[in-house]
Amino acid sequence: MPTFDYKATDQTGKIIEGQLEGKDATAVIARLQEMQYFPIRVQQQAQKTVISRSYTLRGLLRRVRSRDVMVFTQQLATLVDAGIPLDRALNILGELNENTGLGPILTKVQRNIEGGSSLADALAKHPRQFSRLYVNMVRSGESGGVLEAILVRLASFLEQSQEMVDEIKSAMIYPALLVMVGGVAIGVLLTFVIPKFAMIFADVGIALPLPTRIVIHASNFLSSYWYLILIGLFFIVYGIRNYRKTEKGRIKWDAMKLKLPMFGQLYRKIEIARFSRTLGTLIRSGVPILQAISIVKDTLTNEVIAQALVSVYGGLKEGEGVAQPLQESGVFPPLAVHMISVGEETGSLETMLGKVADSYETDVSNSIKRLMSLLEPAMILLMGVLIGFVVVSMLLAIFSISDIAV
């Protein structure tokens, strides 16, 4: 249905502006009158061709990040708990976020609420910023009259999720810097330094040692065919991305990630922790378990694990529990399955899911620390060996020339 901008007054004469969806202007006016508003102007929004700002500098600077949503949720929970009306709380937060990408969105949400929409429905119109998980938790809080408690729980959930993401990103910064610096150093040596030595060796006309010939050939190939290397890398990345967009390719790619040495188990633990934390939070917030399983499936990044939830969903519809289908999938670790089974038997599934999430999040944190303690010296050693091989190969050639001169 089309959306109409309206301007009206309430019974006290206060001017109210907002947006409503309706079949036509007459239907919108009738709805405003039912809300005891006196319409002043009702106008259909013009259909505009919107050019995405996501690729502009301003769009990148104003992009809504997951941390922005987390902070907004914490602030909204505080304001609602203090007894401030929802529309006024959104107005306050809209002003606080005026210079961020979240500001205009909160303004639209506020207008929709003033137009009679629920908070969940207003947030659902912005799926890129507010996920299905977020919207359904808010909807359960509104329907149960415990919105402030749900917002506090949602803020805690987002904060815990953000902490795990930040920890993983922080752990990867140093290895990424090592790879970048080492790659640049080797590239400079092969592109600028080695060719000058090669010219000197060619003028001397001696038989060069094997390591020196390997380095010179690598330098010549990089200098002459660098554009082919870039084109090849582009097509490899492009091909992999397109392959991953297919259902078959995505499943095979995600299955391969789960089988990677060292990283595969870590990746599995991250997904299990996300699954447990999300499902436990949804059930605790009053979301029906079938709907919660459907939402959790969309939040997982690994298609193999997400597909395992399809059997869970079918089992629940037939009256089975959660643990048995998870065990049959062969994807979930035995410890997680047993803990979930105990939670079902004792009637405290959401509590046990929280403990599973705590356990695996702690395990992920410890695994990352152990992995980085091994990865960092290994990468330093690898970079040192590569650079040392280039330097030693040049020294061998120089010593050969010195021997001839003597």
Walk me through what this model shows.
About 75% of the residues lie in helices and about 5% in strands. By secondary structure, the chain is mainly alpha-helical. It has helices at about 25-35, 55-60, 65-80, 85-95, 100-115, 120-125, 130-145, 145-205, 210-245, 245-260, 265-285, 290-300, 305-315, 325-330, 335-345, 350-405; strands spanning about 5-10, 15-20, 40-45. It is built from 16 helices and three strands. The chain has three domains: about 5-45; about 65-145, Type II secretion system (T2SS), domain F (Receptor-associated Protein); about 150-405, Receptor-associated Protein. Mean pLDDT is about 80; it is low at about 45-60. A three-stranded antiparallel beta sheet has the order 2-1-3. The longest helix has about 60 residues, at about 145-205. About 30% of the residues are buried.
Question: Which terms summarize this structure?
Answer:
406 residues, mainly alpha, Receptor-associated Protein, 3-stranded antiparallel beta sheet, 3 strands
